Amino acid sequence: MSRFHIVEHPLIAHKMSVLRNKETKSPLFRQTLREVAYLMTFAVTQHLDLVPLRIETPLEVADCYQGNGLTEALLNILPEASVGHLGMARNDQTLQPEKYYTKLPSDISARQVILADPMLATAGSTVAAIDILRDHGVKDIVFMCLLAAPEGVERLREAHPDVPIFTAALDRQLNEKGYILPGLGDAGDRIYGT
Q1: In terms of DSSP bridges, do strands 97-103 and 85-90 run parallel, antiparallel, or are they unpaired?
Q2: Per-residue pLDDT tens for 171-187?
């Protein structure tokens, strides 16, 4: 199985242009980000294990499946999923990640984890987050982002070659400040209007 996937779809391509547009205001940016994540969810969750489950329908017994359960968009599809948070921020001087918060489900080591971040730029935060998850015993991780830079993809592949990467777009490169070009700016600033 390939470890790098660009989720291509006409709706995603259109919505990525909305995200990239510097004129897009925070409310529309947030909504569109959720919509792209929602559209990507089907591809990202294809790897999830299913557990056989026998249920009673109104008419008879049926053999079905139960999924093992990301944030808002993924929770629309996986409402039973537990959510953990790894708070990381990139230091603008060093471009290195700084951890400020960790809250994970107590049984995280037994779960399949979808690690979601809007951007894969230098991959510093992503590699650090995967390291934290591995320290907590997580073995099955998939990474999902809206936008990736080749440098970040390469670094993530080198650090964690077993982690599949799903993105809506692969851009040209990073600039000297570690921003993706052509990119969409700082996703966090645009989400929260800061």
Answers
A1: antiparallel
A2: 999 999 888 999 988 88
